[in-house]
Design the sequence.
């Protein structure tokens, strides 16, 4: 019960602050995931960045990701996303320039460093670790708040 | 052959498990400074830190960092290094509802008490934290005698000071540190309360000879033990949405070896351990004015008791108990003149701003420029930690430290810092010929990859 309340609070909080309207069912699925699936993460980031519609599906998000010229090897099979991969998606989708090393060698390693430096990640910033659905949404919420401050 | 193959497979599987999710990197730092203080001059230190972060399962993380330095400081070797940190940390949900946490850290880690003025240093030991819904209890023990002395600031006794000068001694003073801390966040009106007990036990006598209590002849080439305890309470929080404060007080106790008149001695004098009863207090206010270039105006007052009969900061007590506050290792105020929190009253006025804070996305956006003005006073007659101070001079004005600084991080992995300081002394507080103004400059460059 307590867990449901926590999820609801996060959900309501995100709806209010993030301001994009994914379906509750999809958000619920993401929040339930201890390790976020790649397609769900792609859906969250691309829809938040306005690259796909929020009525899209995770599968459509993966297709849209393949169309981007971001140098990402999009997995063909369902898989979990690492923090570094998620960070790299965010860097590309929100056009975050990154540090010197990221500019020289763009990729998940320095993307994870960048989002940790910007304060989007508060826990272990290892690019290779998995992330939970709740953490993925929290990171995205931080990104959107930061983006709003930048404008 | 078959057994070897199985063993190899098991080892490879373990290695794969261990390296899964690990992260590593390098930070390099160049620190160039100039001080007109006697015996200092231009010093350049280049330090590299190789760090590793290795999650091990759901609960444990191994943190390791090696550091190596190249320096032209005549007090240090040209090349030296140390294990900066090496700790295994476990974080566990304590109860079924997950509201409480228990964490355990073992190895070498950085530790500090809540104020940072009494102890803030690396040590080898164990740290446990119990997170309850309304407070956090922390217990830590550590040993400092395995640290490379060139990366430490733990000198408290005469023998510590002699070892610090001895090029053949590699390790830091052998001290056992224990802390018990209780943090109660937002106890009332968003005010945080901290309690801390810190025990510093000098273990030198377990490894080498020290002057024993009762020795009747003065020995300038040796010294005794300095054992101290600190009992602190602190309060911090917001007063308004823009104004924050921090206040704390530490009662310091302990013992210090003192060569004093003794009626039971054949020579009329003897070494005796005398009690320490001292105090340290501080209060600071910070006012944030985000609208005006993210300005911060601050005032910080620090007071630490002295001892009127002390002739030097290190084991300088000459009569009765000592009322000189002696921190183990902590932060200091000032830029060109940086005395420890001992026999001091300092008032630091500071102001900083980010002049390009509105230039979003510009490499100058992070530029922070500031200035500090810090008048220093002696709390009582007696010694201070800085050389050149006249211990026989009574309490009063010592001098003013003026500093300007700038910090810029144009990229997340590149940092630049510049600080310029000037200390204008009050001649009557210094020994004759030791009252020259001090000029100080520092440039820091750091890069990580």
Sequence:
């Amino acid at each position: 019960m307590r867990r449901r309340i926590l999820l609801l609070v996060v959900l309501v909080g995100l709806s209010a602050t993030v301001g994009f309207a994914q379906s509750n069912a999809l958000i619920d699925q993401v929040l339930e995931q201890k390790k976020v699936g790649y397609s769900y993460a792609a859906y969250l980031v691309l829809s938040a960045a306005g690259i796909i519609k929020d009525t899209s599906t995770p599968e459509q998000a993966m297709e849209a990701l393949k169309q981007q010229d971001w140098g990402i090897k999009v997995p063909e099979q369902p898989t979990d996303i690492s923090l570094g991969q998620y960070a790299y998606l965010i860097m590309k989708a929100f056009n975050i320039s990154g540090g010197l090393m990221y500019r020289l060698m763009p990729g998940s390693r320095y993307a994870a460093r960048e989002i940790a430096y910007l304060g989007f990640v508060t826990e272990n910033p290892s690019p290779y670790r998995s992330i939970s659905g709740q953490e993925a949404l929290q990171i995205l919420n931080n990104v959107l708040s930061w983006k709003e401050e930048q404008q | 052959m078959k057994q070897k193959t199985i063993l190899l497979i098991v080892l490879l599987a373990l290695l794969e498990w261990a390296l899964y999710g690990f992260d590593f990197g390098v930070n390099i730092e160049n620190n160039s400074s100039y001080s007109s203080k006697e015996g200092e001059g231009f010093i350049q230190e280049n330090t590299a830190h190789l760090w590793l972060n290795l999650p091990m399962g759901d609960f444990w993380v191994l943190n390791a960092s090696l550091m190596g330095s190249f320096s032209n400081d005549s007090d240090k070797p040209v090349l030296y290094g140390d294990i900066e940190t090496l700790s295994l940390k476990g974080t566990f949900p304590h109860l079924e509802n997950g509201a409480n946490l228990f964490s355990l850290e073992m190895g070498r880690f950085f530790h500090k008490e809540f104020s940072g003025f009494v102890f803030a240093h690396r040590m080898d030991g164990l740290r446990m934290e119990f997170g309850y819904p309304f407070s956090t209890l922390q217990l830590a023990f550590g040993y400092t005698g395995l640290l490379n002395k060139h990366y430490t600031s733990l000198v408290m006794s005469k023998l510590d000071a002699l070892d610090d000068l001895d090029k053949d001694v590699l390790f830091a003073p052998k001290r056992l540190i224990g802390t018990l801390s209780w943090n109660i966040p937002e106890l009332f009106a968003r005010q945080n309360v901290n309690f801390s007990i810190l025990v510093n036990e000098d273990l030198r006598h377990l490894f080498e000879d020290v002057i024993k209590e009762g020795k009747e002849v003065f020995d300038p080439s040796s010294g005794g033990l300095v054992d101290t305890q600190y009992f602190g309470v602190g309060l911090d929080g917001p007063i308004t949405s823009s104004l924050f404060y921090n206040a704390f007080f530490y009662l310091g106790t302990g013992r210090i070896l003192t060569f004093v008149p003794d009626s039971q001695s054949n020579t009329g004098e003897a070494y005796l351990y005398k009690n320490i009863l001292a105090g340290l207090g501080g209060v600071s206010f910070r006012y944030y004015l985000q609208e005006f270039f993210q300005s911060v105006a601050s005032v910080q007052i620090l007071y630490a008791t002295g001892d009127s009969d002390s002739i030097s900061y290190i084991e300088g007590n000459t009569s009765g108990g000592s009322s000189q506050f002696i921190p183990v290792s902590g932060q200091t105020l000032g830029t060109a003149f940086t005395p420890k929190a001992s026999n001091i009253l300092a008032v630091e006025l500071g102001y900083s701003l980010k002049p390009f804070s509105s230039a979003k996305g510009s490499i100058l956006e992070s530029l922070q420029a500031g200035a500090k003005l810090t008048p220093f006073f002696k709390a009582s007659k007696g010694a201070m930690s800085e050389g050149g101070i006249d211990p026989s001079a009574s309490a009063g004005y010592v001098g003013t430290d003026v500093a300007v600084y700038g910090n810029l991080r144009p990229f997340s992995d590149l940092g630049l810092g510049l600080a310029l300081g000037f200390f204008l002394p009050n001649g009557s507080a210094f020994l004759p010929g030791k009252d020259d103004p001090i000029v100080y400059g520092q440039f820091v460059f750091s890069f990580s990859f």
Observations:
- The first helix of chain A runs from residue 2 to 18.
- Residues 18 and 145 of chain A are 8 Å apart (CA to CA).
- The interface with chain B takes residues 2, 97-102, 109-110, 112-114, 117-118, 124-129, 150-151 of chain A (CB under 8 Å).
- Residues 1-20 of chain A have pLDDT under 50 and may be disordered.
